[in-house]
Amino acid sequence: PGAGAALRPCSSRVAQDGVNKAVIDRIIRVDHAGEYGANRIYAGQMAVLGRSSVGPVIQQMWNQEKSHLKKFNELMVAYRVRPTVLLPFWNIAGFVLGAGSALLGKKGAMACTVAVEESISEHYNNQIRTLIEEDPEKYKELLQVIKQFRDEEQEHHDIGLEHDAEATPAYSVLKTAIQLGCKAAIFLSERI
Amino acid sequence: VRCQQYPPLRALQASAALRAASDEHKKEPWASSSQQHFESPPAGHQPEEKPQGPQPSYTGQGGQESEDYESEEQLQHRILTAALEFVPEHGWTAEAIAEGAKTLGLSVAAAGLFHSDGSELILHFVSECNTKLSELLKKEQKLVQLGEAEKKPIDEFLRDAVEARLRMLIPYIEKWPQALSVLLLPRNIPSSLNLLTSMIDDIWHYAGDQSTDFNWYTRRAVLTAIYNTTELVMMQDSSPGFEDTWRFLENRVADAMTMSNTATQVQSTGEAVVQGLMGAAVTVSN
Questions:
Q1: How confident is the model at residue A19 (pLDDT cuts 50, 70, 90)?
Q2: Which of B191, B198, B214 is nearest residue A8 as measured by Cβ atoms?
Q3: CATH for A21-190 (2.30.30, 1.10.3470, 3.10.350, 1.20.1260)
């Protein structure tokens, strides 16, 4: 006998104030993963270049990333978002990328910073666009946070350029490779 | 001038058609979508259709329309809820659904709206239980926030939540193994998994879990295992008041706590060892 409209029961996850749970879920999950990865990248860079002349610069950028991560931890709990299952992987991959790029020298570390921060800024801009298209009023707080973080990541990008990132040997190859990796990381973290 | 009374144009619900057939005439009910509009129904006019006795006034018509109108989903929901009463006797079957439909004044053919293996009935039941559990946990949380109750330690909280949820199975316990096997059908796995994971997530949320790292997964996996194994133990438990099951549950939760304490200890021991080695290395190099 033909069944009627198939019932797809699931426990009602009542969205707080009609928030688009699916969109917010993705945004917070991937941003949390991103800040976590950025933390690990700077940790890797500090492990190699901590005592060099760029140590303080990297430390300062790292501190900002730490505060970003803290903010996303709070948002994750507030919106009851699941963290990406790939976190342990980003833990290691981030550290390896940071340390690896730092072993190429100070310029190498800066090149890595430039590549990553450029990817992240673009990614934040996309999210800002998405949220504004959805409902700028409803997501005002989140938009504020993302805009502020995007501005700070842009600053990191500029600091990297100031410190001769572009003078790194094989700069464009390195940059492209890192940015491809970032795109893949973003794609995966949004979904799993 | 005589006032002519026109038959009200109303959204005809599927139930109305089924109700027409449920009386003496066993008419074949046509699956009418509740969106169709008709004049007053044909032969077999039934007085129960008008919730307010005599013909309502012009203004009352609008109110009546919104009261009468229900979506197909709501109708299915009502039928399944009514069917639960008959599950202990008939199992999770079309018979139970048919009996449930009868109590609502619908035709037994209403069972044709659903799969014959009772999938929707079981999923509906699980969803209802989960909702009840969430409400219970939310109420408890409110009491704690108001200071009217003590905050339970984690192991006690988890134990009580799982026990409360499993107790909802007791009236249906004879037929529950059948339900479990239906829930494992490939067709039902996405829904049943979804229901299970959101229930476990709810319990952890109200337990106060705020992890944002891989612990999020570890904790949910552990609790899911505890829940599933306890459920299976309960199926075979014949002790009075299921005390064997609750004792099993208590032991499993205690095991989980021990495991997590051990893990923390191992981690801090590991960190201490690393520091010790670093110190030794520095000493040796000097």
A1: confident
A2: B191
A3: 1.20.1260
